[in-house]
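re: ur question from earlier - yeah i can do the single chain one, its not a big deal. heres the input i used so u can compare w yours
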Amino acid sequence: MNATDTINPAEAAHFGRLAADWWDPKGSSAMLHRLNPARLRYVRGQLDALWGFDPKARRPLAGRRALDVGCGAGLLSEPLARLGAAVTGVDAAPENIAAARLHAEGQGLAIDYRAGEVAQLAGEHFDLVASMEVVEHVADPARFIAALAGLLADDGVMILSTPNRTPLSQLALITVGEGLGMVPRGTHDWNRFLTPDELTAHVTAAGLVVTDVSGLSFDPRAGFVLSDNTNLDYFIAARKS
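and the output i got, formated as tokens:
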């Protein structure tokens, strides 16, 4: 592994095997489909607040570049493109990129999908850098965050989400989620989960300022919702200092 590698080959292979039914809302990625609306609400809310967008604007990201790291088959990339962004999606699994390209083509969306490592983007800059439920799967979280920070434009925003390392996340995501087949077995390693303080430290060390930390909770009536409770999962938004 060289100084720029952050890919964990075993993790990439695991998610590559799930590529075929990534877009099936009842398939192996069903949990991600359920998470996606809350993700999008968070991203949109942060960008509206930080960049002063009109919350009613349909294409507020027109003229902006967005990067989705660990994009899978494009569950976040496609909505960002519909919001007007010029989107680049990167994933370690070539199978995921193939599925993403095929789906985007069917939707009439022009998204720049690339298989490989974030280091291949060195020298490029993006207004939005997003990486959802990815940092817990990389080989070196500190190096990964630093690489993402290096891709931010001067007024750029980085948004991350990841499970917290708590008894609740172990119960919900592994014991119940994987145990009952709601999430493919082997998806999570609880010991690799990061607490908000740990992730904030990595973001700060990369030269960014954290502007928001918000929780992602599960409501039996409404599904996944944004909240102040970070015990299960959480988001971090950050900008250059």
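The radius of gyration is 17 Å. not sure if urs matches, ping me
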